[in-house]
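Exam revision sheet. Question 4 asks you to relate a sequence to its structure. Input first:
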Amino acid sequence: MADPLIELVDVSKSYYRDSLEIPVLQNISMTVPEGEFLALMGPSGSGKTTLLNLIAGIDRPTRGILRVAGTELGRLSESELARWRSRTIGFIFQFYNLLPVLTALENVELPLLLTPLSKKDRREHAAVALELVGLADRVDHYPKQLSGGQEQRVAIARAIVTDPTLLLADEPTGDLDRTSAEEIMNLLGRLNAEFRKTILIVTHDPRAAERARKVIHLDKGAFA
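Answer key, structure tokens:
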């Protein structure tokens, strides 16, 4: 049995509008072992993205204990949390979030600017990541010169270039046609199977969820 990489104990998250409390997640407990490929499904407003953001250290729980890669996130200051995220988390967004004025290589290199690597080493790391996602021949292309599927592969290369412990993806196929979506899920499956990356995706797409090794359903802030 693999060691737990993610542990949530009675985690709740609420947002506040004036004096009104709006609960989004309620008493969530879960354990995700290292090497897992997990899909989170559920209707809009069920709390999927909120849960992903908590695990990523982008947001903080209102109550409960959240431990990722051996670190209890609630104990970290904002600056400590930012450093932890840069070392631990690779995040893949639905709409790629690539900078249009940078080439594929320069976009992938961005997270490495926070490391002590030299420019030469950063470029080499970025090139290896692009080769891994099948885009070795697109390093000098700008986002507008790429298809949607290629843009998402650049985004995945950017997410893995720092060799993060955990890959998190929010609707990674949501803006893609069926063929491109299958290519992206094949790539994520390869990263999990060959490189033992722990992956957690949020998706509405049952075809994407089928590629995960485990599926969890959320509804109204609780596991269904």
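Marking note for examiners. The mean pLDDT is 93.
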